[in-house]
UniProtKB/TrEMBL annotation:
This is DUF523 domain-containing protein. InterPro entries: 2-thiour_desulf. Pfam families: 2-thiour_desulf (PF04463).
Length: 147
């Protein structure tokens, strides 16, 4: 059983109200091999919502900020924790998450400047899942999996 980003399964839960539908992920969900989740929605954030990126503050702390300067760190941490709780309940060992996202990005995320540039890094949910023994992949890694 996989945990997958709901937006990849065609759920309109992205910050802009859309999705990132991926045919293979949709098939996994339809076949009962994957459970879709959206950490941001689990935390109570609305859809659509402010576009956010991870920044490092003056003290070196990771924060989730909107382009307008609103701090959403608390909500993103809550969403990550609820996602981990669901993963533990259903015994998930692998997750396929949306690349570049401040929640789900794994290995590569937006750089925090809202310029469309990327940097090496991990979204809050992806990092928490990985730290708790769940193998994390993105939709770009499907060739590494035996689906």
């Amino acid at each position: 059983m996989y945990l997958v980003s709901a937006c990849l399964a065609g759920v309109n839960c992205r910050y802009n109200g859309g999705n990132s539908k991926h045919k293979t992920i949709c098939e996994l969900v339809k076949e009962g091999k994957a459970i879709p989740i959206c950490p941001e929605q689990l935390s109570g954030l609305p859809t659509p919502r402010a576009c956010c990126e991870i920044i490092i503050d003056e003290s070196g702390n990771k924060k989730i900020m909107s382009e307008g300067g609103q701090d959403f760190t608390k909500e993103f941490i809550e969403g990550a924790e609820k996602t981990l709780e669901i993963a533990r309940i259903i015994g998930v060992e692998e997750a396929i998450l949306q690349s570049r996202s401040p929640s789900c990005g794994y290995g590569c995320i937006y750089d925090g400047t809202f310029s469309g540039n990327f940097k090496e890094g991990y979204g809050f949910t992806a990092e928490l899942l990985a730290k708790n023994g769940i193998e994390v992949y993105t939709e770009n890694d499907l060739d590494k999996l035996e689906l």
